[in-house]
Each structure stands twice: as structure tokens, then as C-alpha cells.
Structure prediction request, 144 residues.
Amino acid sequence: MKALVIYDSNYGNTKEIALKISVGLGTDSKAIPVTEFKREYLNGVTHLVVGSPILGWRPSENTNKLLDSFGSEELKDIKVTSFDTRMKIFFHGDASNKILRRLIDKGGEKLCDPKVFFVKDKEGPLFEGELERAEEWGEEISRI
Ligand SMILES: Cc1cc2nc3c(=O)[nH]c(=O)nc-3n(C[C@H](O)[C@H](O)[C@H](O)COP(=O)(O)O)c2cc1C
Prediction:
């Protein structure tokens, strides 16, 4: 199992979640900002997790660019899932389901349903317990 977590983050909350997911995934895992992604980082990867804040009811621009950049079969043989960070508001929209759908479109095999994590306000902080939940989720998906 070799895992890669790719995240985008404006205020650091999605980054914190991504780092904890990566810890949970184990020693052969790393988390990188989407802006630093290079194709060769996918070499040997078995588990790919992509996370983004919800911005205007959808994934961030950088995340969409990443998803656009994958070739149609580029994620073949890679297990994929996603997460987003969002606020507890009525019209929150969605990023993680949209991301997962795109990852599957690019040949990825669905690892599990997306996960959502909550911030208290635009700039955070995260709600209590979210970092622990992120690490546990990482551990969980490392066993799939
Ligand atoms: C321009 C903008 C638009 C946002 N739109 C939404 C939204 O549609 N739904 C939502 O739940 N949160 C929304 N948020 C809150 C973000 O999801 C929140 O800032 C993000 O989870 C924080 O993650 P980060 O610290 O990694 O940037 C928005 C925030 C900004 C700055």
C-alpha cells in the first residue's frame, strides 16, 4: 500500500485534515498541496485521496484544474476517494462527491464514500474532534 493525499487549502484547515489522514494511512503515505503535484508522484500509488474546501458550492479552482489534468485512464489500478471541508450552513453545496466522480471518470476504482469535515467559520478553526476523525478515517481506508 502506497498512499498519496492531495489537498488544496486557503486557510490551513483542509491541510491539517489532509496531514492527519496521511498519518492514519501509515508510513508509506504523503500529503502534498495540489499546486505542487507532479505526475511522477502517482508512480506506485495504490490509494489516492483528494481533498478540497467547498468554495461557492464546488471544489476549488486548483482542485478542478488537477482533475482536468488527469488523462482518461490515468488513475487505472488506483483506489480513489475524496473529502471536503465545509461550514455547517444550510446551502453548503458539495465538493467531495464531485471530486470522487471525476476521479472515477479518470479510471480510478472507488475506495469508499467521500468524507466531510467541518470548520466553524470560513477561516476555521475546525470543529473539535475533526482531526481525530481524519486520522481514524485514514487508518480505516489503509485497510481497504
Ligand atoms: C469564497 C468562499 C466561498 C465559500 N463557499 C462555501 C460553500 O459554498 N459552502 C461551504 O460549506 N463553505 C464555503 N466556504 C467555507 C470554506 O469551505 C472554508 O473556508 C474552508 O473549509 C476552509 O478550509 P481551508 O482552511 O483549507 O481553506 C467558502 C469560503 C470562501 C472563502
